[in-house]
Each structure stands twice: as structure tokens, then as C-alpha cells.
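Researcher: Here's a chain I'd like modeled. Treat it as a single chain, no partners, no ligands.
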Amino acid sequence: MNGAFERYLSLWVLLCIVGGLLLGKIAPGVAASLDRMAMVVDGAPVVSIPIAICLFFMMYPIMVKIDFASVIQAGRSGKPVLLTLFINWAIKPFTMYAIAFVFLGVVFRSLIGEEAVDLVSMPFGLDLPPGARHGAGVVVVHDGVRMLAVPLWRSYLAGCILLGVAPCTAMVLVWGYLARGNDGLTLVMVAVNSLTMLLLYGVLGGFLLGVGRLPVPWQALLLSISVYVALPLVAGHLSRRWILRRKGQAWFRERFLHLLTPITIGALLLTLILLFSLKGEVIVAQPLTIVWIAVPLLLQTILIFALGYALARWLGLSYEDAAPSAIIGASNHFEVAIATAVMLFGLASGAALATVVGVLIEVPVMLLLVEICKRTAHYFGRARSTA
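Model: Modeled as a single isolated chain. C-alpha cells:
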């Protein structure tokens, strides 16, 4: 069953998009009611409870697989780890911002709509009267709630930024396995990425959102890291130790982990249904919106993969180390990006929609890149055959 979930993930995503659109058409109040189930601080919804629950079940199964003691061994494979960190944090966030700004803010701006605006949540802790300006937005009152009206293309840009600063720590384990890479090294890099996100995700995300003249709710960014990364990280580590001590390694791998994969993907698919039920009207009215957002995301993915793969060959890495190093840089942690966009800007925001488009292109594009890796393995002198 787990194999079917992973093998046909693109199909499940498509079905959830259709299901979300139908739900938004048939019962538009359902998702809106779920969106109102949130932790509110100073009148601002900070954490969506349904999304938080879904995101925990997406992240926990990945975190519980990680043996964090293996991070100590990362120094033995210094080149691929350093390459991954360099691509993910020194290159990728800034190329994502530049590419998305050029296409959404210049090339496609007139197609998106020069005057089109998006209503996003007020930054946590910000108390401004209606009519006041904040960044590129203006404070307005919508259904009795103060919100920011920002240019729609900037809202899409925000979603792209959140994807660009969220390196993958989940599905990359699958991509690395399919590419016949070094699974042990992939696990180490996932652990390093998870720990690094705690330090850099909020800093880079807040900086680039500020450059894009969008609201920078630092408290909410830090809270999102705590809720969506640190919480499952700690829960996964502690429960892993407890289960291994009580049940043993065999039961943990053969029974426990086997049950988690469909739960993880099911939580992701449920989140997609919620997102698309609220964005259904926009998508039906402007179906090309998905294309405008997908173009910069696709170009970014290909660029980062090509750069990482070329640098891996230049550094003399074996294929088994080069493949996961390039793949982990190209893929995005769309679960955290979706959750952060929802928390910062709202479930119905253009930023949330942009992160969902990231999910749409993630699976088919990464499967294509995995195939490219396998077909080019002979370019790496120390590549070995793995069955």
C-alpha cells in the first residue's frame, strides 16, 4: 500500500485538487469554518489548528526515522554535506527570489493583473488603523477583521520565497533511494538540514520577505519553526528512543514505520483539499494563474539541480554522494512552506496558493531529475552499481 501511495502521488495530488475545487463549489463554508479554528493572539490568528495537526503528521514520520547520532559522522563526508549547505542557504533562497521577482513582478505582472490585490493576515503583533500603509500593503477592514491588501503578484512572490528557504527534509529520502544514492549520507544531510532550518529559516525568510516589501512577522516565523519543525523533531527523537528501547529495531522498522507513510501522505492530501477549496474560485476564473506561478518554480528547481550536480562532479564526488547532494538542493520542504504561508498570510492567500503549486510540480519534476541522475551516473568516476 505504501508503494502505491508513493508511486501514484502525482495522481493523488491531482484528485485532491479536483476534490478541493468541488468542495469549494458545493460547500464553500466548510473550509472557511476550519480556517477559523485557530489560536488567536491579539486578535490575529497565529496557528491554524487543523493545519498544525496535518503538518505534524506529515513531519513526524520523517523525523522519527532519523538517528541523530549519525550527524556526528557527517564530518567523514564533509564535501557533500558542505555542498548541500552551500546550495541550500547561500544560493537557493536568493535565486528563488530573483527568478520569482522577474517572472511574477515583470514578465507575468500584467497577466496576473496590475491592480489585482490579495487580502492577507495582519502581521502578528502589528496594530495599525485602517488606511495605514505597511510595506507594499494597506490596512483594510474585511468582514470586521483588519487585514493587509497587497498586490497579488507580491503575495505569490511571498509563497515562492517561503519555498526557496525551505530545503527538503522529507520526500528527499524517497528521491535519494530511487536514484540509488547513498542512503546513509542522505539521512545525515536530512538531519543537518532539519537542525539548520531551526537557525536560518526564519532569518532568511524574514529578510527576503522584507526585501519584497511584504509583512515580516518575525514572531510568527519563529513560532512556525517551533510548531512545524522543532515539535515533530523533538517528538520524533524522543519517541524513536522509547520505541527502540521497548520494542527493538526490527519492530520499529517493519511494523511502526510501515504504518506511518499513508498517514503522512494522507495529511498532506487533506491539507491540499482545504487549500484548493478556498482557492477554487480564483483557479476556475483564472486557470493560467497556476502556470504563472509554476514557471519560476520549475526554472528554479532545474537551475539548482544543475548547479549542485555540476559542482558535485567538479568536487570529485562519487555518484552515490552526488545524486542526493543535488536532489536535496533542488527539492523543497513544501509542508513547512505551506504551513508558514497559511500562518503568516492566511489559508486563502495567494502566498498559500503559490506553495501549493510547489507541491504540484515537486513530484513529477523530481521523478524526472531522478531519472536524469541514473542516466548520467557514468559521468562520475567512482560510481558503483547498486541493486
